[in-house]
């Protein structure tokens, strides 16, 4: 039987209707991957997977990330939480997750996709939003697309944290400044054939452009890409399973009380292609 799904918004998101047995047997894995690239975010309500099932399901979709990055814990499970005791390494990056971002822009090959399940919800706030940088690019006029395809952008942790930690100390800056500052094309020509804007809170400046013009351009593109029509707003329910294509979407979590104990369990799929410019 083919996969049953309905769009969440016309330009982003799909809700799958599939039972956990079918999720786990991998029979639909190819279709799910294709749909993920087509829709950017997939959700299954009432999936109710255990950690082991969530890991097994993630494995059906690609190459499970196993602890090569320090935030990942045992068996690839990462606990997304503001609780420093649960995940002190992740807490270091945490302030940035409230801003529109792609994960792993400090790595050569950013993760392909991520699978999340809520374990403890916050009573207020803590919704997660996703913006399709595929759709945002595809809707731009041809001449602007062509121009943007010629540009390169420097990404840095310092750029991401500057807004996220307004009361940062010199010691914080020292840690951030030590991170790699990769340069990526502004437009990603994916192997799938789709193109997307490579935007994230880590986007610092456009190469060879005056900083004033660069800031204006990046601000304008962020405003464009995060318009209502490109955004899916997810209100978490226990039992949810959510998958996003990290290469063609940005995401952010809405503010919530750090004392709420909110925890999501996360497994990540390694990236499969570096960010490559199209033939501009
Ligand atoms: C992440 C992330 C958002 C959330 O896991 O990379 O940004 O809802 N999480 O906590
Ligand atoms: Mn993130």
TrEMBL record:
<keyword id="KW-0408">Iron</keyword>
<dbReference type="GO" id="GO:0046872">
    <property type="term" value="F:metal ion binding"/>
</dbReference>
<dbReference type="InterPro" id="IPR042098">
    <property type="entry name" value="TauD-like_sf"/>
</dbReference>
<dbReference type="Pfam" id="PF02668">
    <property type="entry name" value="TauD"/>
</dbReference>
<dbReference type="InterPro" id="IPR051178">
    <property type="entry name" value="TfdA_dioxygenase"/>
</dbReference>
<keyword id="KW-0560">Oxidoreductase</keyword>
<keyword id="KW-0479">Metal-binding</keyword>
<feature type="domain" description="TauD/TfdA-like">
    <location>
        <begin position="6"/>
        <end position="267"/>
    </location>
</feature>
<protein>
    <submittedName>
        <fullName>Taurine catabolism dioxygenase</fullName>
    </submittedName>
</protein>
<keyword id="KW-0223">Dioxygenase</keyword>
<dbReference type="GO" id="GO:0051213">
    <property type="term" value="F:dioxygenase activity"/>
</dbReference>
<comment type="similarity">
    <text>Belongs to the TfdA dioxygenase family.</text>
</comment>
<keyword id="KW-0614">Plasmid</keyword>
<dbReference type="InterPro" id="IPR003819">
    <property type="entry name" value="TauD/TfdA-like"/>
</dbReference>
């Amino acid at each position: 039987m083919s996969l049953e799904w309905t769009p969440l918004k016309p330009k982003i998101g799909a809700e799958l209707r599939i039972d956990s047995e079918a999720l786990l047997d991998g029979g639909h894995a190819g279709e799910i991957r294709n749909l993920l690239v087509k829709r950017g975010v997939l959700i299954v309500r009432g999936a109710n997977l255990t950690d082991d099932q969530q890991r097994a399901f993630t494995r059906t979709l690609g190459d499970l990330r196993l602890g090569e990055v320090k935030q990942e814990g045992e068996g690839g499970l990462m606990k997304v939480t503001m609780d420093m005791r649960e995940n002190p390494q992740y807490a270091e990056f945490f302030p940035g997750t409230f801003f529109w971002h792609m994960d792993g822009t400090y790595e050569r090959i950013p993760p392909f996709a991520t699978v999340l399940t809520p374990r403890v919800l916050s009573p207020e706030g803590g919704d997660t939003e996703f913006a399709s940088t595929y759709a945002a690019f595809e809707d731009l006029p041809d001449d602007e697309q062509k121009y943007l395809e010629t540009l390169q952008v420097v990404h840095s942790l310092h750029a991401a944290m500057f807004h996220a930690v307004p009361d940062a100390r010199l010691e914080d800056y020292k840690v951030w400044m030590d991170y790699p500052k990769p340069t990526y094309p502004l437009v990603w020509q994916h192997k799938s054939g789709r193109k997307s804007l490579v935007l994230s809170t880590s986007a610092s400046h456009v190469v060879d452009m005056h900083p004033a013009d660069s800031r204006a351009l990046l601000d304008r593109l962020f405003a464009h890409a995060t318009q209502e029509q490109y955004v899916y707003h997810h209100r978490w329910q226990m039992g949810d399973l959510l998958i996003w294509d990290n290469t063609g979407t940005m995401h952010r979590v809405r503010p919530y009380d750090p004392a709420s104990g909110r925890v999501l369990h996360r497994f990540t799929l390694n990236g499969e292609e570096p960010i490559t410019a199209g033939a501009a």
